Amino acid sequence: MESKERTCLNCGEVIKGRVDKKFCDDQCRNNYNNSQKAISTNLIRNVNNALKKNRMILRGMIPEGESVGKTTKDRLIRQGFQFKYFTNTYENKKGNIYVYCYDYGYLPLDGDWYLVVKDKDS
């Protein structure tokens, strides 16, 4: 039986011990698994941060004590709003489609104006 030299998936060192062992020690196993998860975790973190930022921008467009406000597309973009990130949409009885970031939403109006609303249920 020919024995093939096995190396650690993380550091490349020669592995000694069981034949099904993939890592030289616990630290290498943890480092390898953490690096594998980091790619998807970073994507999720970035999307969540964009959603939270969009929500804060929309919240700032509604005057204190009010439940609705109006703003322009240019003003939203200047503050860093990213239209591709939203949590859900809502179509009212008139067929208007509101786009939401959690409990704050917007409705596109004519001429690059937007109606900004806060969800009544929250």
Task: Walk me through what this model shows.
The chain is α+β, with helices and mostly antiparallel strands and 122 residues long. The chain has one domain (26-118). Helices cover 34% and strands 20% of the residues. The chain has helices spanning 26-60, 73-78, and strands at 68-72, 88-91, 97-101, 104-108, 113-118. A five-stranded antiparallel β-sheet has the order 1-5-4-3-2. Strand 4 (104-108) and strand 5 (113-118) form a beta hairpin. 12% of the residues are buried. The mean pLDDT is 91. It comes from Algoriphagus namhaensis. This is DUF2116 family Zn-ribbon domain-containing protein.
Q: Any low-confidence stretches, pLDDT <50, length ≥5?
A: none
Mean pLDDT: 91
Strands ordered across the widest β-sheet: 1-5-4-3-2
Shape assignment: rod-shaped
Pairing-aware structural class of the strands and helices? alpha+beta
Q: Work out the radius of gyration.
A: 25 Å
Helix content: 25-40%
What fraction of the residues are assigned to beta strands by DSSP?
15-25%
